[in-house]
Amino acid sequence: MRRAFLYASGTALALLAASGEARAGGYFSEVQLGLATGLEGAGTGDGIGWQRARTRLILGADIGNPESGPEAYGVRTFIELERSLSLGVELGYVRWFSPRLSLFFGGVGVLAPRTLFGGTAGVNYVFPLGERAGLALFSSVSALPLGNDRPGNGVVVWGLLGIGIRGKL
Amino acid sequence: MTLARPRVRTLTARLALASAGLALAGCAAHCLRDSDCEDGYECRRDRCQLVVHGGDAGLSPGAAGQAGSAQLESNGSGGGGAGGSGTLSGSAGVGGSAIVTDAGAGGSATGGRENLDASGG
User: Fold this and answer.
1) Which B residues 30-89 touch A at CB under 8 Å?
2) Which of A47, A49, B19, B106 is deepest in the core (most CB within 10 A)?
């Protein structure tokens, strides 16, 4: 558990440092801190079982180049806060369809203490709160068919809904 | 912003209702991931099962060599597991493997023995 906290702290610091450097290098970056939960499902051998997904704290950053248009790369690191503490990360492609609405496609992995790997797609909508900040509502769907934290050889799926604060660096 | 708060409340309420509905309907799984279970347990068929290897279960040395592994399943937080392992140390000496399933919330050694399914080796 302590190790997961250390990983999370290190990852968060690296994320913020990368965002700052990206901005200094002419890229734009936005950081988002949020809380999410939802439903978690998996094959149990007797069908699909469902339970409430663990509440997770998510820190993410979107880093892009203004010349590449409404596209960016997104990194999200998350800590699952319930049952056992675990650390995960998402890496992917971000596309904005409007200044408020963006979609995220990428890979997702739970790294510690056990592992899960798969793909994810998410949508993010921002309600502006001033010029540089906003209230973000986001939702995502993930399927994780790899890793040693699955029940048997099943696929773990998440449907999540979250809320957060978003800021431009 | 004025629209955001009611929407957030609505979505949060729906999520809470869905979770409560799952629990009330008895559809919520006891576990879906191994990490849903306590240390030493694994999630199998949405139940936490204690997987005990021969040497760890307190089996006698001769029996452990033949027994391989034994599994204990318990919905409880470990009470059933403790009872089960006591049963195994006496009964699994014939070799083979043994699986004890105790669906009760606080299994005892007696309960474990009653449910013992041991195959000789």
Assistant:
1) 31-36, 43-46
2) A49
- Tell how strand B69-74 and strand B98-102 pair up: parallel
Name the residue facing B22 among A50, A113, A137 (closest C-beta). A50
pTM of the complete model: 0.64
Q: End-to-end CA distance of chain A, in Å?
A: 31
In this predicted model, what pLDDT tens digit does every residue of A66-100 receive, in sequence order?
Answer: 777 889 999 999 999 988 899 999 999 999 999 89
pLDDT score recorded for residue A147: 93
Q: Flag whether residue A131 sits within 8 Å of chain B, measured between CB atoms.
A: no
The sheet with strand B41-44 has its strands ordered as B41-44, B47-53, B69-74, B98-102, B117-118
Chain A residues in contact with B34 by the CB 8 A cut-off are: 114, 148-151
B17 inside 8 A of chain A by CB: no
Residue A163 with chain B: CB contacts under 8 Å: 8
Residue A18: predicted pLDDT = 60
Q: Which helix (H) or strand (E) holds A25?
A: none
pLDDT score, position A88:
96
- In the three-class reduction of DSSP (H, G, I as helix; E, B as strand; rest coil), residue A139 is classed as strand
Q: How far is B1 from chain A (nearest CA, A)?
A: 6
The H or E element spanning position A17 is helix A2-24
Nearest CB to A45 within list B18, B31, B45: B45
On whether the CB atoms of residues A23 and A169 are closer than 8 A, the answer is: yes
Q: What pLDDT score was predicted for residue B44?
A: 83
Alpha helices in B25-78 (DSSP H): 61-67
